[in-house]
Amino acid sequence: MISNALSVKNSINGELKIMSNVISFKPDERNSAISNIISYVAYYRSIISDNEIIKDWNALSWGGIYRFTRFDSSDNRNCNQPLNESFIDFAKAYIKCSILFGKRKEHTKALRVLKVLEFVLLDLVGNANVNECNHMVLDKCASIIYEKYTKSVSANTCKELEKIINALKLNRMIDLPHLDWISPLRFKARKSWDGYDKNLKGHSKLPDIESLLIIASIFAKKDEELSQRDMFTTSVVALLCCAPSRISEIMALPSDCEIFENDSRGIRRYGLRFFSGKGYAGDIKWIPTEMIPVAQNAVRRLRMLSKNARELAIKMEEGYEKFQSQILLSVIDENKYLTAKEVCEFLGFYREISNDYRRKIKGITLNGNVIKHQDYSYNLKELKRLVYDSKPKDFPWFDREKNIKYSNALCLLNRFQLNEINDTYNFVFEKPTVCLFSADIAKSGDSDKRFINIFERYGFNKKEVKEFKINSHQPRHLLNTLALIAGMDGFDLARWSGRQCIAQNRYYDHRNHAHMLSLMRGREIKVENEKLPEARIDDLNILKNGAVIVSKHGYCRHAYASEPCAFYPENESGTNEERFSSIHRRIREKAISDREEEHESAHKWCEFHEKIKIKEL
Q1: Mean pLDDT, to the nearest integer, of 511-526?
Q2: What are the phi and psi torsion angles at 363 (to 5°)?
Q3: Which segments of 209-332 does DSSP mark as H helices, in order?
Q4: 224-235 pLDDT, tens digit each
Q5: DSSP letters spanning 1-34
Q6: Helix (H) or strand (E) holding 116
Q7: pLDDT at position 9
Q8: Do 342 and 328 touch, CB atoms closer than 8 A?
Q9: What is the distance between the alpha carbons of residues 14 and 12, in angstroms, rounded to a whole number?
Q10: How many CB atoms lie within 10 A of CB 324?
Q11: Beta-ladder partners of 551
């Protein structure tokens, strides 16, 4: 068990921060399971980490994400009772280990499973000692999970339970070291081919083209013709249509995201530096040539919207002394107490009627505190300190994992900057939320009744015509489908989309039936100049197993785990010829021999070969 916590000077920002260089827990083979659990908990508890979520070990809630409370069959959020004292430290150690070494950003599914496990241990065993897990406990867990969640969620949750049991076995923290439990829940998503209609309408995964064209027409307007809200919404949609992106990736773009490079043919290309939302890490999304002006205009507008907020963040990064010396230099006496009007004007709020100043101040909050509305409540120095302390808790990091600061966040906004009713807080900046963006393109009524979306603001979405809407993920599906139609290969598409697994491409493939049919008809196998390897029947003199299929046309080898071919041409088996008949006999004898030696799954191949024998007779 080794832990090496290093204090390292960050060369980028000059800050002193704790970096963890940690080797995972190594159990002592001589110890009992309970002793290894105690060591496991002590080991991960002792690790120093710069992750804000896991700094306070004793807290019942970590970062508002992980709540170590009891399982509640109706709703886990309703329960405030802590996990059993003999289980809670193990649960925290496991979650901390997952955060330190896991590939995912969040591990709430693992905590969900741990809560069920604790509940079942207390019910069946009478205590919450995780070393006492057995088949009965785990089957009961699977049963509860199945009753509480949908089929797909249940299957995924039970896979997480398998991982936890494997971790217990690996770290020798279970009394049954050879416990071999496999989740009984399986869910196979049945995907029927659901392609785009030729008129580009009516697909749930793809955007409504008319709605997209409306947003494009608004984006094409001049800057002075757009409100800040319109500019923000249309610019984000434009970037979503330039390259297949998740909305979280657009919101987390750095201000200096643009990049130019020459390709292998010397052509100058334009791309955006991005960080994938699902563990793909950083890369460049190259923008198609036709969309480069669109992307550049969208980035320019977002940079313009965030300019004031980013400049304020830069001043705050330099510390309070530099910050307070750079604002409102015209006032010489900082100790002079200000009237309500002067406070409002300092914060950037102007009113024609003097009484409106006090009314405005009553609604202002800084750092969670309501500003006092009486005259002479603050001097300038106190007001500057209030403003400085109102910066976000995670300041200066907009996204620490991606190394993006507030001062370099492309989509950073001042508070209420996009709100046409409330005044903008020029001295307060915030991260834009996905909801802030989604509400502006969603179906009216799906968002706040008091809020009108971008389609309604421009006279669309009237009752007598269709209701226009899109969601942020639909352009990603559209671009993937168009790329596949254009012939982009799977690897390039997965990389362009920021996708770890190429197999996930199929969920974004919505080509229509006509296109797929023409694609299949257009593929001709050209073999006239290509010499194919010849399969020799003599190769079957050596049999590794009886999972072999032979016909007059050739043979194919399998493993016993595979299912015998359901479309085997029995009339073409060749059993009426001595040469083929002897081969069938040898394969059948090999399968019977392996079955007698209790080789797993050999019996089904014996049955297959017996059917061929009967056909021969």
Answers
A1: 63
A2: -95, 5
A3: 209-219, 228-242, 247-251, 292-317, 320-326
A4: 999 999 999 999
A5: --EEEEEEE-TTT--EEEEEEEPPP---TTS-HH
A6: helix 108-124
A7: 31
A8: no
A9: 6
A10: 18
A11: 554
Q: Is the pLDDT score of 84 beyond 60?
A: yes
What is the residue whose two structure tokens read 């996708």? 499
CA dist 559 and 572 (Å) reads 22
Distance, in Å, from the CA atom of 218 to the CA atom of 225, rounded to the nearest integer, reads 9
User: b/e per residue, 230-240, with b = 16+ CB within 10 A?
Assistant: bbbbbbbbbbb
CA distances from 317 to 9, 14, 253, 397, 476 (A): 17, 11, 19, 10, 36
Examine the pLDDT at 16 and tell me if it is beyond 60: no
The rounded distance, in Å, linking the Cα atoms of 320 and 226 is 36
What would the DSSP string read from start to end of 122-144?
Answer: HHHTSS--GGG--HHHHHHHHHH
Pick from 306, 304, 305, 323: nearest CA to 315: 323
> What tokens appear for 513 in the block?
């039936």
Q: What angle do CA 39, 43, 49 make, to 5 degrees?
A: 165
Residue 604: both structure tokens together: 């089904």
> Which helix (DSSP H) or strand (DSSP E) does residue 404 occupy?
strand 404-405
Q: How far apart are CA 539 and CA 537, in angstroms?
A: 5
**Distance of alpha carbon 21 from alpha carbon 5, whole angstroms:** 6
As a whole number of angstroms, the distance between CA 82 and CA 158 comes to 23
Q: What is the pLDDT of residues 439-485, one digit of tens each?
A: 899 876 544 456 788 998 988 866 556 788 899 999 999 999 999 88
DSSP 147-189: HHS-HHHHHHHHHHHHHHHHHHHHTT-SS-TT-----S-----
How far is residue 381's CA from residue 384's CA, in Å, rounded to a whole number? 5
Q: Residues 608, 611, 613, 617: what is their CA dihedral angle, to the nearest 10 degrees?
A: -170
Given a contact cutoff of 8 angstroms between Cβ atoms, the answer to whether 246 and 461 are in contact is no
DSSP string of 313-381, one letter each residue: HHHHHT-HHHHHHHS-TT---TTSEE-HHHHHHHHT---SSTHHHHHHHHT-EETTEEPP-STTSEEHH
Q: Is a pLDDT exceeding 80 seen at residue 346?
A: no
Placement of tokens 């709100």 in the chain:
419
* Residues near 589 by beta carbon (within 8 Å), at least 6 away in sequence: 546
Distance CA 549, CA 556 (A): 5
Q: How confident is residue 173, by pLDDT bands cut at 50, 70 and 90?
A: very high
- Cβ atoms < 10 Å from Cβ of 458: 15
pLDDT (0 to 100) of residue 104: 65
**What pairing do the DSSP bridges indicate for beta strands 66-67 and 337-338?**
unpaired
Q: From the CB of residue 359, how many other CB atoms can be counted at a distance below 10 Å?
A: 12
Residue with tokens 């793809």: 206
Task: Give the relative orientation of helices 33-46 and 88-101 as an angle to the nearest 10 degrees.
Answer: 60
pLDDT level of residue 29 (50, 70, 90 thresholds): confident
Residues paired with 259 in a beta bridge = 271
- Give the pTM: 0.65
- CA dihedral 385→387→392→393, nearest 10 degrees, is 20
